Amino acid sequence: MAGVAHCSLQAKRLLLDPKFEGYKLSLEPLACYQLELDAAVAEAKLRDDQYTLDHMRAFGMYNYLHLDSWYQDNVYYVDQFGRVMNLSVTLDTALQKPREVFRLPTDLTAYDDRLCASMHFSSSTWLTLSDGTGRLYLIKSGKRGDSASEKWEIVFNEELGRPFIITHSVSFVKSDMHSVAVLLLRVEKDELDTKGSGFHITLEWITIAEISKEGDHRYEIFKRRVLQGKSVPHYAAIEPSGDGLMVVSYKPFKFMKDEDDKLEENDDAKTTNEKKVEDPLYYWQQTEDDVTITVDIPQDITKDDIKVHFSPDNICVTLKDQPPLMEGKLSSSVDHESCTWIIKDNKSLEISLVKKNEGPWWPELIVGDTRGEFIMDPAQRSEIAESLMHLTSEVMNPNPEKEKPPCNAQELEECDAFLEDSASLCRFDGITLKVTHVINLGSNQYLFSVVVDPKEMPCFCLRHDVDALLWQPHSDQPENMWEHIATFNALGYVQASKQDKKFMACAPDYSYAALCECLRRVFIYRQPTPLSTVLYNRKEGRQVGQVAKQLVATLEASDPILGFQATRERLFVLTTKTLFLIKVNSGY
């Protein structure tokens, strides 16, 4: 992928606690309130033809409870009569029954192939809504959570093909034109896939804009774009400006020309694969002291046509008046005053770089540049093989008495392994429809997403070693596009032991994280807080200044949990016929 910036996530060391001692089980009672629903939640159960893991992830594990992040403690769900029900909480002791704020025009019971109804709050006064039959509604709501000023008005309503669920939407103004961009997810039959599951995933990115025609203002579809992949994305969100899209997925997504051109796109891909692979732009070698680069040049190029600029951390090579042949940040610093270049045999340019720090090997020449090929000297190859010899053996543990025996894979715990170990985070440009940034997440398992600031993109939480780190995307900050904003100590390890977990969430102020099982049990992990009493660690004989607590709540319900949302003060848990409120924090 030429032109793609290969990035990495930089954790803030100040937000990590290497001395975290674990969670102390707390038996303090949690105030739990429950509201019986007038009608059951409009649950769409998986059909016999929805048998794949992707169907289960997209629809079987769907969160039927929707949190309105623009207004505090405001949740919504759709019941079996097609009513959008709202609960807005101010006082736990004065809870009102969920109230109807909107009724879908569609009779949900008349459709056998519908999916779950879905919604997303694009702004404080706009939202997108789907009934699960393939119809999309754009709604102007007024100030939500307030029965006096809240009135949901449909401004756009259109059938968009096969059923879908809404994954994200944003509202923005560009060139004095109000637009709402929405992301729709489908799992579709793939007749060309004979070896896989027989299905592919599509993300349709639709922009609905306010169009003025002869004084008449109305909303119409302004643009439709489709991405296709082979796995349900863990995370997919549109940038607040509507200029780009970020996707975390196990298998990559790519834009299709349009839905009718999928076969043609497939043929193009085959043709591309059959083409001869291009030769590397340059070759490079290295020793402990220096790096040598060889670049083929046209025979008519003279010494005067070549410009090579060295700096401590960068290199730039230009031929004649053409754009730079090589340019970028070097893998490590060099002594730029000692760097040289020569022309060899009138056909190649040889550049010698002197390493500033002798010894460390460079993993790449220019950061993010994949156009070159590293050539290893045979002596170096045998030296590396010899240094790794002690790590290999035909016997699992040939010398068990040795102080540090080789790692035995059988000793790894179940929670140290997970199914998808090579997910990636990609940022797509909305104009070129190409990937601009890629992060290989490697073993950083995706856990959940949360909205910390509704004006920003949703944050995503990844496992890093035993911890869980929260990352905030900043689409308007190219140098700091993904910021580490919080750490949930040991949560990566703890959640892996919960085999029946269904949903995970955290408070937008990071004060706690929580997860629920499929039935009844909810686990809450409060982050370290100062103690009001003196506590000593007996083993080390020192005073403990703060403690992290684990709390467990067991719901009085036999129905499966269908929805789970967290706010600063409360956890909301939705079952088929009941909505539970668990008071986690007080004093706000």
Describe the structure.
This protein has 588 residues and is mainly beta. It has two domains: 5-257 and 421-583, Methylamine Dehydrogenase, Chain H, CATH 2.130.10; 282-370, Immunoglobulin-like. 6% of the residues lie in helices and 44% in strands. The chain has four helices and 39 strands. It has a five-stranded mixed beta sheet, with no helix packed on it. Strands 2-36-35-34-33 form a five-stranded mixed beta sheet, with no helix packed on it. The chain is globular, with a radius of gyration of 28 Å. The two termini are 49 Å apart. The model is unreliable at 259-265 and 414-420 (pLDDT under 50). It is found in: Cytoplasm; Nucleus. This is NudC domain-containing protein 1. InterPro entries: CS_dom (IPR007052), HSP20-like_chaperone (IPR008978), NUDCD1 (IPR037895). One of its GO terms (cellular component) is nucleus. It holds the Pfam family CS.
N-to-C CA distance: 49 Å
Mean pLDDT across the residues is 86
How many domains would you count in the coordinates?
A: 2
Architecture (CATH level 2) name of the largest domain: 7 Propeller
Helix run count: 4
Which oligomeric state applies? single chain
How do the strands line up in the largest sheet? Answer: 1-28-27-17-16
DSSP E strands, number: 39
